Amino acid sequence: MKSICVYCGSSAGTNPRFLEEAIRGGTEIAKAGLTLVYGGGKVGLMGAVADAALAAGGRVVGVMPEDLVNQEIAHKGLTELHVVRSMHERKLAMSELADGFLCLPGGPGTFEEIFEQWTWALLGIHAKPCGFVNVAGYYDLMRQTIQQMADNGFIGQAYVDMLVYAETTPQVLDAFGAYVAPPPKWSTNKP
Fold first, then answer.
1. Contact 47/41 with Cβ under 8 angstroms?
2. What's the rounded Cα separation, in Å, for the pair 44 and 58?
Protein backbone atom coordinates (compact mmCIF):
# COMPACT_ATOMS: atom_id res chain seq x y z
CA MET A 1 0.00 0.00 0.00
CA LYS A 2 1.42 3.35 -1.07
CA SER A 3 -1.42 5.81 -0.61
CA ILE A 4 -4.48 6.32 1.58
CA CYS A 5 -7.49 8.44 0.67
CA VAL A 6 -8.97 10.16 3.71
CA TYR A 7 -12.56 11.38 3.71
CA CYS A 8 -13.52 13.74 6.53
CA GLY A 9 -15.39 16.89 7.45
CA SER A 10 -14.82 20.33 6.02
CA SER A 11 -15.71 21.43 9.55
CA ALA A 12 -13.89 20.41 12.73
CA GLY A 13 -17.12 19.27 14.40
CA THR A 14 -18.02 19.87 18.03
CA ASN A 15 -16.00 17.16 19.75
CA PRO A 16 -12.30 18.09 20.20
CA ARG A 17 -11.40 14.41 19.77
CA PHE A 18 -12.31 14.66 16.08
CA LEU A 19 -9.61 17.28 15.49
CA GLU A 20 -7.11 15.38 17.65
CA GLU A 21 -7.63 12.24 15.57
CA ALA A 22 -7.34 14.13 12.29
CA ILE A 23 -3.97 15.47 13.44
CA ARG A 24 -2.85 12.03 14.65
CA GLY A 25 -4.15 10.45 11.45
CA GLY A 26 -2.23 12.78 9.14
CA THR A 27 0.91 12.37 11.23
CA GLU A 28 0.68 8.56 11.27
CA ILE A 29 -0.04 8.32 7.55
CA ALA A 30 3.09 10.36 6.84
CA LYS A 31 5.21 8.39 9.34
CA ALA A 32 4.10 5.17 7.64
CA GLY A 33 5.50 6.52 4.38
CA LEU A 34 2.07 6.66 2.75
CA THR A 35 0.84 9.43 0.48
CA LEU A 36 -2.26 11.16 1.80
CA VAL A 37 -4.92 11.67 -0.87
CA TYR A 38 -7.83 13.89 0.15
CA GLY A 39 -10.26 16.56 -1.04
CA GLY A 40 -7.72 19.39 -1.16
CA GLY A 41 -9.30 21.74 1.38
CA LYS A 42 -7.63 23.96 3.94
CA VAL A 43 -10.67 23.94 6.23
CA GLY A 44 -11.97 21.71 9.02
CA LEU A 45 -10.70 18.19 9.57
CA MET A 46 -9.58 18.16 5.92
CA GLY A 47 -7.11 20.97 6.52
CA ALA A 48 -5.97 19.49 9.82
CA VAL A 49 -5.18 16.04 8.41
CA ALA A 50 -3.27 17.59 5.49
CA ASP A 51 -1.33 20.03 7.69
CA ALA A 52 -0.36 17.22 10.08
CA ALA A 53 0.87 14.99 7.26
CA LEU A 54 2.87 17.83 5.74
CA ALA A 55 4.36 18.75 9.14
CA ALA A 56 5.48 15.12 9.54
CA GLY A 57 7.26 15.26 6.17
CA GLY A 58 4.57 13.42 4.22
CA ARG A 59 3.40 13.71 0.66
CA VAL A 60 -0.13 15.15 0.35
CA VAL A 61 -2.19 15.13 -2.83
CA GLY A 62 -5.44 17.09 -2.97
CA VAL A 63 -8.20 16.79 -5.56
CA MET A 64 -10.71 19.63 -5.83
CA PRO A 65 -13.26 20.85 -8.37
CA GLU A 66 -12.39 24.22 -9.87
CA ASP A 67 -15.52 25.90 -8.45
CA LEU A 68 -14.33 25.12 -4.91
CA VAL A 69 -10.82 26.32 -5.77
CA ASN A 70 -12.43 29.56 -6.96
CA GLN A 71 -14.16 29.88 -3.57
CA GLU A 72 -10.65 29.96 -2.05
CA ILE A 73 -10.91 26.89 0.17
CA ALA A 74 -8.08 25.01 -1.59
CA HIS A 75 -4.96 24.27 0.47
CA LYS A 76 -2.07 26.10 -1.18
CA GLY A 77 0.77 24.20 0.53
CA LEU A 78 0.16 20.68 -0.80
CA THR A 79 2.65 18.48 -2.59
CA GLU A 80 0.16 18.35 -5.47
CA LEU A 81 -3.29 19.81 -6.09
CA HIS A 82 -5.29 18.28 -8.93
CA VAL A 83 -8.00 20.68 -10.12
CA VAL A 84 -10.89 18.89 -11.82
CA ARG A 85 -14.17 20.01 -13.39
CA SER A 86 -16.72 18.27 -11.17
CA MET A 87 -17.34 16.31 -7.99
CA HIS A 88 -17.72 13.17 -10.12
CA GLU A 89 -14.24 13.69 -11.58
CA ARG A 90 -12.91 14.39 -8.08
CA LYS A 91 -14.21 11.10 -6.69
CA LEU A 92 -12.89 9.10 -9.63
CA ALA A 93 -9.45 10.73 -9.43
CA MET A 94 -9.24 10.13 -5.67
CA SER A 95 -10.21 6.50 -6.20
CA GLU A 96 -7.54 6.03 -8.85
CA LEU A 97 -4.84 7.70 -6.72
CA ALA A 98 -5.53 5.68 -3.54
CA ASP A 99 -4.88 2.11 -2.42
CA GLY A 100 -7.38 2.30 0.45
CA PHE A 101 -10.08 4.58 1.87
CA LEU A 102 -10.14 5.80 5.45
CA CYS A 103 -13.04 7.76 6.88
CA LEU A 104 -12.75 10.18 9.79
CA PRO A 105 -15.89 11.92 11.13
CA GLY A 106 -17.68 14.12 8.64
CA GLY A 107 -20.99 15.10 7.11
CA PRO A 108 -23.00 14.05 4.05
CA GLY A 109 -20.12 14.45 1.59
CA THR A 110 -17.94 12.18 3.71
CA PHE A 111 -20.66 9.53 3.84
CA GLU A 112 -21.40 9.79 0.14
CA GLU A 113 -17.74 9.38 -0.83
CA ILE A 114 -17.01 6.36 1.37
CA PHE A 115 -20.29 4.66 0.45
CA GLU A 116 -19.43 4.96 -3.22
CA GLN A 117 -16.06 3.32 -2.65
CA TRP A 118 -17.66 0.55 -0.58
CA THR A 119 -20.21 -0.03 -3.35
CA TRP A 120 -17.44 -0.21 -5.95
CA ALA A 121 -15.55 -2.68 -3.75
CA LEU A 122 -18.51 -5.00 -3.27
CA LEU A 123 -19.20 -4.93 -7.02
CA GLY A 124 -15.56 -5.83 -7.70
CA ILE A 125 -14.72 -2.56 -9.46
CA HIS A 126 -11.75 -2.45 -7.08
CA ALA A 127 -10.46 -4.60 -4.21
CA LYS A 128 -9.30 -1.77 -1.94
CA PRO A 129 -10.18 -1.64 1.78
CA CYS A 130 -12.64 0.83 3.26
CA GLY A 131 -12.39 1.74 6.93
CA PHE A 132 -13.87 4.02 9.57
CA VAL A 133 -12.03 5.70 12.42
CA ASN A 134 -14.84 5.52 14.94
CA VAL A 135 -13.83 8.48 17.10
CA ALA A 136 -16.03 8.76 20.21
CA GLY A 137 -18.49 6.27 18.70
CA TYR A 138 -19.25 8.58 15.77
CA TYR A 139 -19.98 5.69 13.39
CA ASP A 140 -21.85 3.41 15.83
CA LEU A 141 -25.34 4.17 14.48
CA MET A 142 -24.19 3.95 10.87
CA ARG A 143 -22.64 0.56 11.62
CA GLN A 144 -25.96 -0.61 13.06
CA THR A 145 -27.80 0.62 9.97
CA ILE A 146 -25.37 -1.23 7.70
CA GLN A 147 -25.88 -4.41 9.72
CA GLN A 148 -29.64 -3.94 9.27
CA MET A 149 -29.07 -4.10 5.51
CA ALA A 150 -27.74 -7.64 5.89
CA ASP A 151 -30.28 -8.64 8.54
CA ASN A 152 -33.05 -7.67 6.13
CA GLY A 153 -31.57 -9.41 3.10
CA PHE A 154 -30.34 -6.43 1.09
CA ILE A 155 -26.66 -7.35 1.25
CA GLY A 156 -24.61 -10.41 2.16
CA GLN A 157 -22.86 -10.48 5.53
CA ALA A 158 -19.47 -10.74 3.80
CA TYR A 159 -19.97 -7.23 2.41
CA VAL A 160 -20.83 -5.84 5.83
CA ASP A 161 -17.80 -7.57 7.30
CA MET A 162 -15.45 -6.16 4.65
CA LEU A 163 -15.69 -2.72 6.31
CA VAL A 164 -12.99 -1.99 8.88
CA TYR A 165 -13.83 -0.14 12.11
CA ALA A 166 -11.33 0.98 14.73
CA GLU A 167 -10.90 3.80 17.23
CA THR A 168 -7.69 5.22 15.77
CA THR A 169 -6.10 5.75 12.38
CA PRO A 170 -3.12 3.46 13.15
CA GLN A 171 -5.54 0.64 14.02
CA VAL A 172 -7.36 1.06 10.70
CA LEU A 173 -4.05 1.15 8.80
CA ASP A 174 -2.94 -2.07 10.56
CA ALA A 175 -6.19 -3.76 9.57
CA PHE A 176 -5.73 -2.60 5.98
CA GLY A 177 -2.43 -4.49 5.92
CA ALA A 178 -4.30 -7.77 6.47
CA TYR A 179 -7.31 -6.96 4.27
CA VAL A 180 -8.56 -9.56 1.82
CA ALA A 181 -11.46 -8.52 -0.40
CA PRO A 182 -14.44 -10.86 -0.65
CA PRO A 183 -15.55 -12.04 -4.10
CA PRO A 184 -17.65 -9.48 -6.00
CA LYS A 185 -21.37 -9.41 -5.22
CA TRP A 186 -22.40 -11.07 -8.45
CA SER A 187 -19.63 -13.69 -8.40
CA THR A 188 -20.61 -17.34 -8.40
CA ASN A 189 -17.88 -17.92 -5.79
CA LYS A 190 -19.55 -15.94 -3.00
CA PRO A 191 -18.64 -16.82 0.59
1. yes
2. 19
Domain boundaries, the chain: 3-177
- The answer regarding whether domain 3-177 maps to CATH 3.40.50.450 reads yes
Residues 5-45 have pLDDT tens digits of 999 999 999 999 999 999 999 999 999 999 999 999 999 99
What would the pLDDT profile of 127-141 be if each residue is shown by its tens digit? Answer: 999 999 999 999 999
**φ, ψ of residue 37 in degrees (nearest 5):** -110, 130
- Cα torsion for 157, 160, 164, 165, to the nearest 10°? -110
Do residues 123 and 185 lie in contact, with contact meaning Cβ atoms separated by under 8 Å? yes
Q: Which of 157, 172, 152, 161 is nearest to 103 (CA)?
A: 172
Cβ atoms 8, 32 nearer than 8 A: no
Let me know how many helices (H) and strands (E) the chain has, helices first: 8, 7
